[in-house]
Write a structure and sequence with these properties.
The complex is a heterodimer of chains A (188) and B (88). Chain A has five helices and six strands; from the N terminus they run αααββααββββ. With 188 residues, chain A is α+β, with helices and mostly antiparallel strands. Classes of the chains: A alpha+beta (188), B mainly alpha (88). Chains A and B meet through β6 of A and α2 and α3 of B.
Chain lengths: 188, 88
């Protein structure tokens, strides 16, 4: 499956049915904060409601999704930060939805690494640096109240890792994006 | 795959990715930094070359390559290793 195909699929309909998105394993906020460096109103994952690696791959293989994640975000928590976008009619900015998809992808990437699907040296601490937004589409405005779900898949593309994902509200696709990044060793 | 074929793929990707190199004569003694590539362009050239050549070289090995000769050496060694058939 190509990134382009997966992105178009993400624009059309939920990548996972609602039942699968919430069937666990679940990770609450404390576990999410162990996966992501983001905090406060820039943490766009409040919990993970589903994580599954693709059954067959032994490593992140080129061109095939290595796993899928579903996350939830309480928009009410970040709503105060969005009051100026726009006064009287607040909306969750599309670029922040792309960021949320990237954060969900990073959670998935780290969970896959824990499950032995990464390539790096054991014990090496690595950062993941976003390098490109390959594609993005905003399909529905999102008012900052209630919960949204973020579904993401990761694929290997040479030295890059690609995240393709979508934001869902009430089971409808509000946005989809494909972003790309590289791992970076952290000098201790 | 011969060494000159590997170098031709790397050179072609440099020409395609790093601006203002199209008319430059690129030799193995050069580094991509010498050619004006930024860090992301270097990753892009290496990544695309590995895909084109259907090779995998660990990132930690790639970090030790100081110039194009070192990179081609790594690719040549990876090409000589027995591994899965192309496309697997």
């Amino acid at each position: 499956m190509t990134v382009e195909n997966l992105f178009h699929e993400a624009c059309r309909s939920p990548l996972l049915p609602a039942g699968e998105r919430r069937c666990g394993p679940r990770f609450e906020k404390e576990a999410v904060e162990a996966l992501l460096p983001h905090r406060g109103s820039f943490l766009f994952v409040d919990g993970i409601t589903h994580f599954a690696r693709t059954p067959s791959p032994k490593a992140l293989g080129d061109g095939e999704p290595a796993g899928t994640i579903a996350c939830r975000l309480d928009l009410g928590r970040i709503a105060p930060e969005l009051s100026g976008h726009f006064p009287g009619r607040p909306l969750w900015p599309g670029v922040l939805q792309v960021e949320a998809i990237g954060q969900a992808g990073l959670c998935l990437f780290r969970l896959l690494e824990r499950n032995g699907l990464g390539e790096g040296e054991a014990g090496a601490r690595r950062d993941y640096v976003l390098t490109d937004i390959l594609a993005g589409r905003y399909l529905r405005p999102v008012a900052p109240r209630g919960e949204v779900e973020i579904v993401a898949r990761v694929l290997r593309d040479g030295l890059f890792t690609v995240v393709v994902g979508q934001c869902l509200k009430d089971d409808l696709v509000c946005s989809a994006a494909a972003v790309r990044g590289v791992e970076k060793e952290v000098q201790e | 795959m011969t060494r000159s074929e590997i170098f031709a793929v790397v050179r072609s990707n440099i020409h395609g990715i790093v601006e203002e190199t199209q008319n430059l004569e690129i030799t193995e003694e050069m580094s991509m930094r010498d050619l004006g590539a930024d860090s992301l362009q270097i990753v892009e050239v290496v990544s695309r070359s590995m895909k084109d050549l259907r090779l995998k070289v660990p990132r930690t090995d790639l970090m030790g390559a100081a110039n194009l000769k070192d990179l081609v050496d790594l690719f040549e060694r990876a090409a000589a290793r027995p591994g899965p058939a192309p496309g697997k």
